[in-house]
């Protein structure tokens, strides 16, 4: 996870379009820290060209160019290494610094092209122009997650070529005044197009992932989503027997309502039950529908599962009202099992809760049973 930018300049440079979810913006920022071969190739290219031309023209302007290239590339490399290490450690990353160094690097490439053409050495000018042009492809395809950054870097890399062409006094080079703006526009447009395709793909993947992990009718987690959510919780969170429990719920009387009023009303009732469960269980709890009229709650930290079960038995016995204002009455039977050091996998805890649920059903429904304790509490009248 790489940190989103905080400063205005970096935020503007990394703007990738409106209405992009935060998770996708984080992924786009992360893409700027990848593709290391392209980064390494760019560093070697620019430093090598600056070094060769500094040897060819040992003047102050070329000395400055080489010093800038080496300094900027080294700082970018150090920031990149630090950012990747901090990301692996789940710490804030120096994203703003890394992003702002990219245009600075583009400016050093442009400066080199300018001093090369002004030197009057057409070998130097050709080499520096080719180097700047070659970098554009890498800039575009490494940074298209941030198309504004691409446009700024290309402008700073190639813009000085136009200035140098005008100041050189060579009319043939004036053709660059047409070529480079067109190239800037074309590559920037390509970056925006690639960015749009990437964002669309990521949104589709995000939606597919959501559907794979959530119940379509109620919006709750499904079985796969529940298992993934439990695995992704902080270490020890779902395994502390003093803090976390699993409640397995089965609605009493739902089949009768479904048969009497039809599947549409039954679906509406399930959605209303899901809404009530979310409200009663707390924001930090995991609530899932396993199928039919079976639900599961993995409690939040410090919650009292027995007290929660009391509340659920009482509150789900209250009537539900559909759009037609038909009062629907059901109940709920609950099996409770605890996560502990000997039974910390969801499969095992779910099985214990299911067995406790069976005991609650057999004992007369509308009550809860805790696995092991076999304590029963009837519904509150």
* Total DSSP E strands: 8
Report the C-alpha radius of gyration, rounded. Answer: 31 Å
The coarse silhouette is elongated
State the order of secondary-structure elements, H for helix, E for strand. HHHHHHHHHEHHEEHEEEHEE
Lateral strand order in the biggest sheet: 2-3-1-6-7-8
Q: What fraction of the residues are assigned to beta strands by DSSP?
A: 5-15%
What number of structural domains do the residues give?
Answer: 2
Count of alpha/pi helices: 13
State the end-to-end CA separation: 51 Å
Low-confidence stretches: 238-242
Residue share in helices?
Answer: 55-70%
Description:
It is a single chain. By secondary structure, the protein is of the alpha+beta class. The chain has 2 domains: 8-212, no CATH class; 223-378, Reverse transcriptase/Diguanylate cyclase domain (Alpha-Beta Plaits, 2-Layer Sandwich). Helix content is 62%, strand content 10%. It is built from 13 helices and 8 strands. It has helices at residues 8-13, 22-31, 36-56, 60-88, 95-118, 122-143, 147-168, 176-213, 223-232, 254-261, 263-281, 305-315, 346-362, and strands at 245-252, 286-291, 294-298, 320-321, 327-328, 331-338, 367-370, 376-378. A 6-stranded mixed beta sheet has the order 2-3-1-6-7-8, with helices on both faces. Strand 7 and strand 8 (376-378) form a beta hairpin. Helix 10 runs antiparallel to helix 11 and helix 11 runs antiparallel to helix 12 (305-315). The radius of gyration is 31 Å and the shape is elongated.
